[in-house]
Amino acid sequence: MSEELDALTDREREVALAICDGGSNEAIAERMYIALPTLRTHLMRINQKLGTKGKGDVVRLMVGRLLDSYRVGRIAPPRPQPVNGLATRMAEPKPAPGFARAAPGREGEASPNGTPTRPGLARPKIIAADDDSRAESATMAGSL
What we know:
The chain is an all-alpha fold. The protein has 6 helices and no strands. The N and C termini lie far apart (64 Å).
């Protein structure tokens, strides 16, 4: 990517890439199967060779060099790889916690009780005011 990064050893480049993946020093050392003091030594040497002061500076430098390489055409952007011979697709979005998927319907269509529906989400259960089926559990929970 650049002359600065060429000055790093292979292992120091691996550490620099692991820094870009994020995490604390402890997490990075664990992911790389190295001792924490060894990681700190690599970080110190990376900072000396690149003229950086910390992990954030290393990430900024590497991202900057990567973008420069894309701009001048030295690196082609990655393409999505097929999975099991099929083209990859984006995963279907998950519903918000507490909501279940409903049968497909039209957005804004009125439900039987007159409220507009939201696409892909089940309507909340409406409890009548005179329904005391939950009163006993509510009383028990309040008595704790």
